[in-house]
UniProtKB/TrEMBL annotation:
Protein name, per record: Putative membrane protein
Lineage: superkingdom: Bacteria
Annotated TM spans: 510-528
Species the sequence originates in: Saccharothrix espanaensis (strain ATCC 51144 / DSM 44229 / JCM 9112 / NBRC 15066 / NRRL 15764)
Keywords, sorted A to Z: Membrane, Transmembrane, Transmembrane helix
Length: 530
């Protein structure tokens, strides 16, 4: 039907196919039989009232509406608003759409669609949702059998100046909102069967607290400006991609479970809070920058954790917190720059912990690795840590270090530190003496364990003489400690120590005593004979 101006009351009871028309009055086909309604380039004086109506198909193409009331609508097929301008809200609360719901290229003040049920896709490609009352799309508790699509074959992206609310929603397909420009996206407790793709999207806030994602969560190059990216208690079956993301207010992953990898290489984050998170695969934070540290205590990672080249700043607290973590395949901190404490206390790493080339700049405690358990511990740092290095009760099979470690500004705590092999090996006496000098400079208090462990490593390499040198030094320092403790009797203790060291090497060089006795016996015999 082609008309100019037509009253809504004259549209009859059958199918309507109207274009280039000015519809006056209120379109309200409440009691009409099941039919299709199609409007092309039409202008309405009043919002159509289709609440509780039954239609086969409803389409507005390139139309202008002051609003649309379709609450509790029953639409057997598609409901399409394509290229349409709606100056007021589109009311779809409790509506049922058997086919596709499309807002493609439309500009709408707001969509209110609580508990909406859509059998097909929800298409938002090219849509602009203005966000009346601060909410652009309210789909809380909605059900979408297909996907939520922000793109099609010719256009990509959706714009919403108000919040998009999908809390408690159920989506049977993918959520694809690449290059979207959204104020807030809230999908707390949502069940999203497919992938969620927000690549290159820009948002004020993003919240998926308690949500379940059946595929991967793709947030590559996403930008979040004002509120933390919240994934607390989220369940993601696949990977979480945050590579090259820019999150000004931090990422929250507390108690989250990720079945695949967590990838955030080259990202710029305000900080990450991921206490007790579980990651089935790898955690890739290569060259990530964080201005508020990474707090990942209690994290359980099936693969490796890689922070190579990361730049972590939190001069007033923790640059990296991995206390009590469980890592299945190595922790790489090579070339990392940390302006705050790096905490590895209580962590268990099946493979290698590698701090080769790391810069540790905290003034109080630079590295806290107390009770760390790992296969290999690489501490060949780039330069001397500014603060203390705490290795108390840590255990590893292989220790690899360099001279810079032993120059730590706050010293090195070694009580109970246990290792089986040392790299580079101490090949000769001069190397052993240099190591002893490093231990003396680094120890703020006498730690017998450090000397016993070094001697045991040397013995395992067949260096018995060098092991004895270490144990003699241990006893010398023990007597020196006692001399300081007894006060006025200190000189006597020092004299006894000198005598024991000279005669028997504190029992580790008994040949000296035996040789002296033989010499005395020989001298006495010669005198007697004379």
């Amino acid at each position: 039907m082609t008309t100019g101006e037509i009253p809504a009351a004259e549209l009859g009871d059958g199918d309507v196919d109207l274009f280039d028309a000015h519809v006056t009055g209120v379109l309200e086909p409440l009691d009409a039989p099941l039919r299709s309604l199609r409007f092309t380039r039409c202008r309405f004086d009043a919002p159509p009232v289709l609440s509780e109506s039954f239609v086969r198909r409803l389409e507005f193409d390139d139309c202008v509406l002051p609003g649309l009331d379709a609450r509790r609508l029953r639409c057997r097929g598609d409901l399409l608003l394509s290229g349409t301008s709606v100056h007021g809200p589109v009311e779809l609360g409790d509506a049922t759409v058997g086919g596709e719901l499309s807002l493609r290229d439309s500009r709408i003040a707001a969509v209110r669609a609580r508990r909406l049920a859509v059998g097909g896709d929800l298409v938002l490609a090219g849509a602009v949702l203005d966000g009346a009352d601060g909410v652009a799309f309210d789909g809380r508790g909605s059900r979408v059998g297909g996907g939520v699509l922000g793109e099609d074959d010719v256009r990509i992206g959706v714009t919403a100046t108000g919040a998009v609310l999908l809390a408690d929603a159920r989506v049977g397909g993918a959520v694809t909102l690449r290059q979207a420009r959204l104020a807030d996206l809230v999908a707390d407790r949502a069940r999203l069967t497919g992938d969620v793709d927000l690549t290159e999207a820009r948002l004020r806030s993003l919240s998926l607290v308690g949500a379940a994602v059946g595929g991967s969560l793709v947030l590559g190059a996403v930008q979040v400006d004002e509120e933390p990216l919240s994934l607390d208690r989220a369940r993601v079956a696949g990977d979480v991609h945050l590579a090259f993301a820019l999150v000004h207010t931090g990422v929250r992953l507390v108690d989250a479970r990720i079945g695949g990898d967590l990838r955030a290489s080259h990202a710029e984050l305000r900080g990450v809070s991921g206490a007790r998170a579980h990651v089935g695969g790898d955690v890739d934070l290569v060259r990530t920058r964080s201005d508020d540290g990474l707090r990942l205590s209690g994290m359980d990672v099936g693969g490796r954790v890689d922070l190579s080249g990361a730049s972590l700043h939190d001069s007033g607290g923790l640059a990296l917190d991995l206390r009590d973590t469980r890592i299945g395949d190595g922790l790489r901190l090579a070339d990392m720059a940390a302006e705050g404490t790096v905490v590895l206390s209580g962590a268990a790493v099946r493979g290698r912990v590698d701090l080769r080339g790391a810069h540790l700049a905290a003034r109080a405690v630079a590295l806290d690795a107390c009770r760390l358990v790992t296969g290999e511990l690489g501490l060949a740092v780039e330069d001397a840590p500014q603060g203390r290095v705490d290795l108390r009760y840590a255990r590893c099979a292989l220790l690899n270090d360099n001279r810079f470690l032993w120059g730590a500004g706050g010293g090195v705590e070694l009580a109970g530190f246990d290792y089986l092999r040392l790299e580079p090996r101490l090949e000769d006496g001069p190397a052993v003496r240099r190591r002893l000098a490093q231990l003396r400079r680094a120890s703020r208090r006498f730690t017998p364990d450090a000397y016993d462990r070094l001697a045991a490593v040397l013995r395992s390499d067949g260096q018995e003489v060098d092991a004895a040198t270490v144990l003699v030094e241990k006893q010398r320092l023990r007597y020196a400690e006692r001399a300081r403790a007894v006060g006025w009797a200190g000189p006597a203790v020092t004299a006894w120590s000198l005598l024991m060291r000279s005669l028997t090497g504190y029992g580790y060089r008994m040949w000296r005593g035996i040789a002296l006795l033989l010499l005395l016996a020989l001298s006495a015999a010669m005198v007697w004979h004379w």
